[in-house]
Every structure is written in C-alpha cells, then in structure tokens.
Design brief:
This protein is mainly β and 94 residues long. A hairpin with a 6-residue loop joins β5 and β6.
Length: 94
Amino acid sequence: MATLDFTKQGDWYVAETTVNNDYSLHVEKEFEGFFYMEQKAAGEQFANCDIPLPVMNGYWHVLDRVFAHGYYPMTVRFKSKYPVKIAELNEISE
C-alpha cells in the first residue's frame, strides 16, 4: 500500500503516482468539494480521466473505490479542491 502525499499547488491539493495494475483508492478529505483525476501513459501532458460523476463532484468525505485504466504503466494525478487528510493506493495483483 502506498500513501499519497497531497501538496498545495495553486488552488489545488495534488498527488501523483505511477501504477502498474488496477488499484483501490482510499481518500479522506476535510471538506466536501471537487476531486479530479488525470492520467498519462507517455509524453509530458496529462489527459482527462473518465471517472464517475459522484467521485468527481466531491460531495463526500471518504472515498473507497477501485480504478482500472486498461493499460499500464500509467501515471495518475489526483487533484482535490480541499485538503486531504489520508490517501492510500493499493495495487491489485493478478
């Protein structure tokens, strides 16, 4: 299990990691508010990550969800409008 370290970057709290498998994500935020994910398999620029609206709108304090990007390795960037208290990512082995 990896702990994600969210740091303040402009108006956002951001964490970035590389995944090699599908993964479960646990996030605890201080306040409800927008939560966003971006991804890239190569190159410099990130693309939007298609995530369910209930995750993105951020009307939650705790998130537990499994994500699959379809191919790996994949660099994933998580962005939160409000501070994140705890964030853990656990890759699922096949």
